């Protein structure tokens, strides 16, 4: 196998389903790379704990190894702390809270749907009491009536489950298209045997469970008693008030909880989308390059190559300026961090310093990104190896280290006070930018490549016009060295969508589920109120014959719905005040108890509940007293 200018012998084949890290197809032994590396390699260790061992024990053991390395003079062990995380946490990362939230939301929707089913079957059971009395009078046993109702409930479950699976087969593809690329195991998402079995079980168990109550009550009334009463008992008290009211209240409370969660995510996403990154993302283009490291094994050679590439790229028509960066935008944990000491700090003060976001840049970085310098100067082409070490800090770091004083001329160094790193003079203060993470402005230091911590810069940022420049960029790279490959080029605005992808996905899904919960609740209220109106036809006709107006009939029907809605909203608000705190990690710039959301959503739900009840209420006003 010829790869990266070397030939490798294939010694094994991994199972098809094994792909760690994600997308991997070929695995190499690390030792040859480690032995031939000219710069430090950054690696992750994956280990399996011995039976009975805990992560805390593993962390303590690794800390001991680091201390031993430091005592032996190995720089690797200095200023290092072991961090041990479960494999599941590493794979799921920031996605876990969103997935758990969506699981909970789906469970709430299931509860709302089953409450609707319970309402339906209960009402059907009440409406068919006369039928059951007739069946019982002609010889049907109670067991036979129970079996009939359970069979009908299971038929509903099978039909509903079948329709649900059909919708899921279509909807899954749409959701995968909307899902962020970093969603773990996205390529494995689909409808398989386990999903079908779960859907079948849920459909049948739900239908059977909520069909059991009406079925058991079908034969409780003696046929003779029921037949003698006929339909004269059809009036105000035809519905069991306690269970019915509880189910309606529960639906409204759960729907409110769902809608408040969706509303909080919508407001959070709006805040994220409105964030100012601090630099001008349009029209920037990020290009990732691949170097033949056998031809350019040292950092000096790589820097020299980039020094030749950048002027040639800037000569491309449509390219206003270009710069070389160490980290791609919004790299998050994949960016570079650095410990530092400010001049004059003691060891105790050093221990309280934040970890810096380290950006290795060249002299055109601030000009190309449109990142303003608010004090002092930007880095220049003259800040190179052999000249005085300099840095540019951001406003957040300047305020923290030198509040109320001019930071220009102050000095910092990387590492602890006794580290050999040279003191670096602050020559400028840049505006705070969200280049590393969109949600957070971190203390940041910008260091010239040739004066910085060793790293392999491989990204170009180009400020372009409207004309496409990627083909010309490939030609320019080929002129410098045909072995330098352009791996990928993407507009900065497209990269800006990366940090928004997961919040947007969570918002869309929870919004859809919240809307579904609202619709289901409205359908449930409509069905129950409609049945209640039909049971009170005689009463309504009598009231109208005695002079009641249409508005009086509507008020009569809606009064109880309003009371139930208020109780359900009150319970939902109480639960939401506690439950929305679970959304804390998913929100940005919005409190879990956001006043606007908690004020708007109850009004919306109350309006929808009244609208759902108003349709059968209006139908009640059309009752002909003589017919009734």
- Average per-residue pLDDT, rounded, comes to 83
Oligomer: single chain
Biggest sheet character: 8 strands, mixed
Query: What is the helical fraction, as a range of percent?
Result: 40-55%
Report the uncertain regions: 231-240
Number of H/I helices: 18
Which structural class matches the secondary elements?
alpha+beta
Query: What share of the residues does DSSP label as strand, in percent?
Result: 5-15%
Number of strands: 14
Question: How far apart are the termini?
Answer: 88 Å
Rg, alpha carbons: 34 Å
The rough form would be described as elongated
Summarize this, please?
With 628 residues, this protein is α+β, with helices and mostly antiparallel strands. The protein has 18 helices and 14 strands.
Structure write-up:
- With 628 residues, the chain is α+β, with helices and mostly antiparallel strands.
- It contains 18 helices and 14 strands.
- It has helices at 30-36, 55-71, 87-92, 95-127, 129-137, 142-178, 193-217, 223-229, 241-273, 299-314, 347-351, 365-369, 395-401, 470-480, 492-535, 537-545, 550-579, 595-620; strands spanning 2-3, 6-7, 284-290, 319-325, 336-338, 340-342, 356-361, 373-376, 390-394, 411-414, 424-430, 444-448, 459-464, 485-491.
- Strands 5, 6, 7, 8, 9, 10, 11 and 12 form an 8-stranded mixed β-sheet that branches. The chain has a 4-stranded antiparallel β-sheet with strand order 4-13-3-14.
- Helix 9 (241-273) runs antiparallel to helix 15 (492-535).
- The chain is elongated.
- The termini are far apart.
- 29% of the residues are buried.
- Residues 231-240 have low confidence and may be disordered.
